[in-house]
Amino acid sequence: MEVSRHWRLKQQRYSLVGEVCPHCDSKIFPPRDICPECGEEAIQPYKFSGRGEVYSFTTVHNPPAGHEENAPYTVALVHLDEGPMVTAQLTDVDDKTVKIGMPVEMVTRKLRSEGERGILVYGYKFRPRLLPT
Ligand SMILES: [Zn+2]
Which residues, chain by chain, have CB under 5 Å from ion ligand 1? Predict the structure, then answer.
């Protein structure tokens, strides 16, 4: 049975999908079809758990155009449980309580409205992990 395109797009939008290397088992994000570890082709989709830890972070007080309504906000480099690093905005957190090593999990949030047609742009953010795993 063919997996519908709609389902695939939905998976892309609401979960963190990268790739796994069939040669060395590296988990890859964002997907780039070539394994950064061994240089072989890696096109097998892999769905990440969305869990990780804050590796480093910075609080943005003077955001670029289009992001003013959210300022100040904290952007973190998140070390995913599966290995890759991903840069993302933190949410549901006071910037004063963010710590290196803090457990976080991915959530899908509206990032901004785009243009006059009001197209909503969604993307992933990370929030402090609520439940112990
Ligand atoms: Zn590899």
Answer: 21, 23-24, 26, 35, 37-38
